[in-house]
Amino acid sequence: MDQDRQAAFDFDADATLDQTPEPTPQPAPEDPSDDSLGATLRAARLASGLSMAQLSTMTRVHPRFLTALEQAEYAALPSRIFSMGYVRAYAGALGLDELNAVERFKQEYPDAAVPLQPPTGAALQQMRQNSPKILGVIGAFLAVVIGWNVFQRLNRIEAPHPSDLVAVPKDWAEQADRQRDRALYLGAPRAAPPDQTTPAMYITPGLEAQLPGVDPDDPNVAPPPAPPV
Questions:
Q1: Which residues have CB under 8 Å from 200's CB, separation 6+?
Q2: Quick one: 105 exposed, middle or buried, by C-beta within 10 A (0-12, 13-18, 19+)?
Q3: Does a structural domain hold residue 130?
Q4: For the domain that residue 66 is a member of, what is the CATH number?
Q5: How far, in Å, are 29, 30, 32, 46 from residue 26 at the CA level?
Q6: What does the angle CA 57 – CA 21 – CA 16 come to, to the nearest 5 degrees?
Q7: Which of 72, 102, 120, 215 could form an S-S bond across to 38 if both were Cys, CB 3.0 to 4.6 Å?
Q8: One-character DSSP codes across 214-228
């Protein structure tokens, strides 16, 4: 009888122990320094109290893809177009900015098939601010290279020796004596140039009698000019 009571007591104790609820696993604490898209989506989902199954029902997206978004395993996602649709649906279900979420997804997971575009916005402004510095460095480098080349060329040019500049030929004195002893010959005088002819004096018609020493009948007197036609 006592053994039956002891067995019943042990059974009740085991049943009581079995009814103790198991501890619910707590999610791992989020890294506050992680500002990726996946960490933002996961933090918003946990703050809303939604499970992955509930979010999958709301967005009609498979839980596997939602988990891949949270863990930034973009290689496990389908095509890029569908992935951006999943991001938009995930953000919209949690009340987040859908366009901002899609832009962050594009930045974290760029499309390799799209060619690189020139910088715009803040990147272009930063490039413009750094352009004078870059040009200054390039200009200084070119100046150093050009100066070095000029210096090397000048060093290769040999300056003339002073003795070469003042060197006098050995037979210079003999040549000077010969030039001094040589007689100087002058040519015969040339004839004087012929006298120049003086043109006849012009006399205005009608004034012959008024000029002394002028004969109106002299043939050497210049004839009056013909009247204009």
A1: 220, 221, 222
A2: buried
A3: no
A4: 1.10.260.40
A5: 9, 12, 17, 11
A6: 145
A7: 72
A8: --TT-TTSPPPPPPP
CA distance 221 to 213: 12
pTM passes above 0.70: no
Measured between alpha carbons, how far apart are the two ends of the chain, in Å?
A: 179
Question: What is the rounded CA–CA span in Å between residue 214 and residue 216?
Answer: 6
Looking at the domain assignment, is residue 101 inside a domain? yes
CA–CA separation, 151 and 146 (whole Å): 9
At a CB cut-off of 8 Å and minimum separation 6, what does 76 contact? 64, 65, 68
- Please tell me what DSSP assigns to residue 39: H
Per-residue model confidence as pLDDT tens digits over 31-55: 555 678 888 889 999 998 989 899 8
The per-residue pLDDT for range 93-151, each reduced to its tens digit, is 988 899 999 898 888 888 766 555 565 666 666 767 777 778 888 988 999 889 888 88
Query: Is the residue at 174 inside a domain?
Result: no
Does residue 55 contact residue 90 with C-beta atoms inside 8 Å? yes
| Count: domains in the chain | 1
Range of the structural domain that residue 82 is part of: 37-108
DSSP label of 20:
S
Return d(Cα 189, Cα 108) in angstroms, integer: 109
Beta strands in the chain (DSSP E): none
Task: Please report whether residue 212 resides in a domain.
Answer: no
